[in-house]
Amino acid sequence: MVSVSAWRLPQSQSSSPPHMTKTQISNTFEQVAILLELDGANRFRVIAYQNASRALATLEEDLLSVVKENRITEIKGIGKGIGGLISEAVLHGSWGNLNELYDKIPPGLIQMTGIPSLGPKRVRLLYEELNIDSLDKLKSACENNHIASLEGFGSKSQEKYLEGIELLHRYQGRSRMDIGLAYGRVLEDKISKIPNVAKAQLAGSARRMRETIGDLDIVLGANPEYQEDIIREIMSLPGIAEVKGQGTSKISLILEAEMLADTISNNEMDFALSESLSERSSNATIDAQIRIVNLETFPFTLAYFTGSKEHNIRMRQKAIEKGLRLNEFGLFSEKEAGNKIGMDAAKNTLICNDEAEIYKNLGMAWIPPELREDRGEIEAAIQGNLPKLIEVNDLKGAFHNHTTASDGAATLQEMANHAINLGWKYLGIADHSESLNIGGRQIGIPSGEIITQSLEIEKLNKHYLNENIDFKLFHGSECDILSDGKLDYSLEIRNSFSHIIGSVHALGSWKNRDESTNTEFLIKAIEDPTFTILGHPTGRILQGREGFPLDMHAILRKMAEFNQEGILKAVEINASPYRLDLDWKFCKYAKELGVPICINPDAHDTKGLNDVWYGTQIARKGWLENEDVLNTKSRTEIENLFGK
Ligand code: DGT
Ligand code: CA
Ligand code: CA
Ligand code: ZN
To answer: What is the pLDDT of residue 521?
Structure first.
């Protein structure tokens, strides 16, 4: 079975040869053979790597000696070229130019080879003929009967591929934030409602709002006498696909979509939890671990399993500095505990009623879970200058949204009405620009047709004015950044828009170029006087494809220069849970440089606007406050910044 995540060449773990083992090299060559096939390479090259992989897997001798004694090509199935690669891997831990091959092949193609009945040759065919480079595209091609007509494929193939995709989704390692949180919040809610559960709270990466979630961690506090009954109740919840383990203090489960059948209410997540969530997660499963503790222990266990591991390690250091020991059971005197461990050591813990009291005992303010990544939050909590994090209700609008004029599913008016219902004061429309084609179909608005949208927007804005509706549409464009860094459309057309979201869509040439070239071209685009906001900066799709290489720090520094001169250049957090790009790790840097961040839903229908909730969580994770985010500003401020 082929792994479904992007592949990477192994890195040496040792400071002297052998840098790679037989198994590592054998597995790598197996991957190389698949990558070469996906790349359409000569059949003999593919076979050469397959043979070499097999030869290494069955080699009994010590590989380092064989290499040192120059006998590698004496092994049957290993020729000169591959022999050289093996020596290099063993002696130096490097891989010749295999890197290029690994970088070149879209991860989506590799994922597709994970479908049992779909080999690399056919994947390549589907890519060449139908431009299918992801599981999602394959799925929709199957559902729309586009594959049956290809030579060598039939409707049977389509059925098998759909089954295969289903299988892959079920066993994929991590979940996107939207799916993970949906499961997490529902499970938390259902457990909270079980009789005699005093407290149940989601911890782990889900509480920290990571963009993807490995497994769910729930901490449950209850009186010991009730715990047995509570465990029995949990085991009878709907949507448990499998029980991986069950003890008196810990349960490990695999959850499936049935758990989401009745959606939760009375929750801040309602903002984002739309019907589409259960659709999105229909074929995904997720692991969950539930820890059951006494009420006195609850805050310590919650803090511990919220993590991150890096944050916990720093917290423990802070405790040690005070002669204390901190673990998931308590905070207590190091001296008294001596060599006792776990619960036993924590018997005489300081009483903490909640997390805030734990932090207080260590001389800190309570740290919001999003920040617990050891990226300066401990220092800030000691100095009392933690950021006051932005909230979704601080947003007054958003600037990157599509309508039926390009590839959106809702009309201008429908989008505007939904924005008004959200309480927003403005909405920026940014449909795709002329040159955007997908699979040969034009998606973008041709130059000659922009005027139609422009007049429509003008008309609606007049209506809002006349009716005293505190709302305005901004007419922008999501303008393609072409491969040489030029912007799509003529200067005259670009000047007619209120704002330009500059986005790279044709990723091919960007993915095949090095970081510095990409950075240079992107800076060229940013320098264009009409450029306002950088859209989905790296083009990544979470769990789908990596973004193109880019020096994000350099990009942000360039933007900072403009902002210092009073010229707005902002970067978006694309709030779609599929993207969440800009990555949160760059937000703090942008903030420090004074580069405004814009939380943009990139909505393609009305519900899509709600995705700003996810973008806001990522902004919080990136330390952002109200004032760091462009779309918290008033309409007048925006008009001034856009200069129109
Ligand atoms: P995930 O599940 O991969 O998305 O990420 P987390 O952060 O939820 O990680 P997980 O589920 O392995 O563990 C939950 C938390 O438990 C983690 O954030 C910190 C804590 N934890 C787990 N293992 C260790 C450890 O070895 N040392 C420390 N200090 N904390 C740990
Ligand atoms: Ca976890
Ligand atoms: Ca876990
Ligand atoms: Zn876009």
So the answer is: 98
Interatomic CA distance for residues 530 and 408, integer angstroms: 24
Give whole-number Cα distances, 42 to 36, 39, 69, 95, in Å. 8, 9, 31, 20
Residue having the nearest C-alpha atom to atom 23 of ligand 1: 309
Q: Are residues 328 and 244 in the same domain?
A: no
Ligand closest to 174 (CA) is 1
Closest atom of ligand 1 relative to the 174 alpha carbon? 4
Provide the mean pLDDT of the chain.
92
Asked whether residue 379 falls in the same domain as residue 399, the answer is no
**Confidence band of 6 (pLDDT split at 50, 70, 90):** low
DSSP state of 433: B
In degrees and rounded to multiples of 5, residue 238 shows phi and psi of -70, 150
List CB contacts of 582: < 8 A, sequence separation 6 or more: 537, 538, 552, 571, 572, 573, 574, 590, 597
With respect to residue 390, please indicate whether it lies within any of the assigned structural domains. Answer: no
83 and 128 assigned to the same domain: yes
68 and 165 both lie in a single domain: yes
Same domain, 134 and 91: yes
Give the nearest ligand 1 atom to 312 CA.
Answer: 29
341 pLDDT band (50/70/90 cuts)? confident
**Predicted local distance difference test score (pLDDT) of residue 343:** 87
Residue 289 Cα: closest atom of ligand 1: 11
Dist. CA 519 → ligand 4 center (Å): 19
Residue of the CA atom closest to atom 31 of ligand 1: 309
Tell me the average pLDDT across 172-178.
84
Identify the domain boundary among 349, 383, 417: 383
Give percent above pLDDT 90 in the chain. Answer: 79
Closest ligand to the CA of 289: 3
Q: Which residues does ligand 1 sit against, CB inside 6 Å?
A: 204-205, 210, 213-215, 217, 304-305, 307-309, 312-313
204 C-alpha vs ligand 3 centroid, how far in Å?
Answer: 7
Pocket probe mutation, ligand 1, options 218, 312, 313, 542, max atoms within 8 Å of Cβ: 312
Comparing 44 with 644, which gets the higher pLDDT?
44
* Amino acid identity, position 598: C
Which pLDDT band holds residue 4 (cuts at 50, 70, 90)?
Answer: very low
User: What is the atom index within ligand 1 of the atom nearest the CA of 205?
Assistant: 8
Between CA 383 and CA 379 the distance in angstroms is 6
Atom of ligand 1 nearest to the CA of 180: 4
Asked whether residue 321 falls in the same domain as residue 246, the answer is no
Domain-ending residue, one of 131, 155, 171: 171
CA–centroid distance, residue 625 to ligand 3 (Å):
30
| Number of separate domains in the chain | 4
Q: Of all residues in the chain, what percent are helix, strand and coil, respectively (each to 5)?
A: 50, 15, 40
Same domain, residue pair 186 and 165: no
Confidence band (pLDDT; 50, 70, 90) for 152? Answer: confident
- Say yes or no: 463 and 543 in one domain: yes
Which of 175, 179, 216, 217, when mutated, tests ligand 1's pocket best, judged by the most ligand atoms within 8 Å of its CB? 217
Q: Is the pLDDT of residue 268 over 80?
A: no
Sort strands 250-255 and 441-442 into parallel, antiparallel or unpaired: unpaired
- Which residues constitute the domain of residue 352? 314-383
Distance CA 87, CA 512 (A): 28
Residue 200 near residue 192 (C-beta atoms within 8 A): yes
